[in-house]
Structure formats: C-alpha cells, structure tokens
Fold:
Amino acid sequence: MEITGGERQVRLEPWGEGDLWLLRRLNSPEMTEHLGGPESEEKVAARHRRYLAVGDGQMYRVVSTEDGETVGSVGFWEREWREGVVWETGWGVLPEFQGRGLAVAAARAVIAAAREAGEHRYLHAFPKVDNAPSNSVCRRAGFTLLGPVDLEYPKGHPIKSNDWRADLHESP
Structure:
C-alpha cells in the first residue's frame, strides 16, 4: 500500500521476523520520551512476538518509496473505548527521517489500511497532550481532535493524552 504524505510517499510492509532491529532502534530514550522510556530487551522481544502474531490488527514497517529505506513503524490494533471496540494506532519514525512528512504519510496509510480491514468504524490515536509533533501528525493526517483524556501508559502510569479520531466510514 502506497500513500502520499505531502510530497512524500511511503509503503507499508507487514511486520516480519527480520524487523526486530527496527523495534530496538525505536526503543531509544529519544523515541520513547512520551511513552514512559525504553523497555527492557525482554519486553522488546515480547513486543516483537506480538507484532508478528496475526490477530486483531496489523503492525507495519514503513518504507520510503523515494529510496526504499525503512523509516519507522505504524500499526493498528483493537481497544475498548467509549463507543465500544475501536481501532487504535501508533507510529514511530526514526530520528534521521523525522521532519520530512513521512509520519503523516504513514498515518494516512494506516487510516487506509484500517478502513480496508473493516470491522470498526473509528481509528483513534492518543498522543500525550505535550507531544506537539505527534499531535501535528494527527491533525495533518486528517484525524479529528475530540479532546483531552486520562489514560495509563505504560500500565500504572497516568498520562494526559489527546483523543484524535478518524471516521473510517467517511471517504478519504
């Protein structure tokens, strides 16, 4: 699946056995600043196994169509939320590729992928309210801001997030 984000295009490739290196790169202090900090190697390995399992949702490696480089990850999974079961999404773009519109392209691509998957009407993103880059990605990718919410992430750690929602029944 190729999607344009501004002037950039990305391709989503289903998460594979060989993508553990990417998960390790995304687990840096810089990349997990708004997510509670880096996870242990044990937790990273467990996350990789979850990403490989075909279940409710899909994780992807994000590839730039410009040069074929892997630039990050994006995915969607089920979550219980106010209106019932919804899709939730999250993404990460490696530091050396940030600021190029690739996260916006990846977010648009994952909206399209969740729309194709069917099952749920809404796709939500929950960036922390002080995570300006991720909130900007949500806005630019076409999500609607519903307002701030109290969440726990990681489990047991209360955070204030914004609830952004994409209606998957609307035409792109």
Summary: Residues 53 and 63 are 21 Å apart (CA to CA).
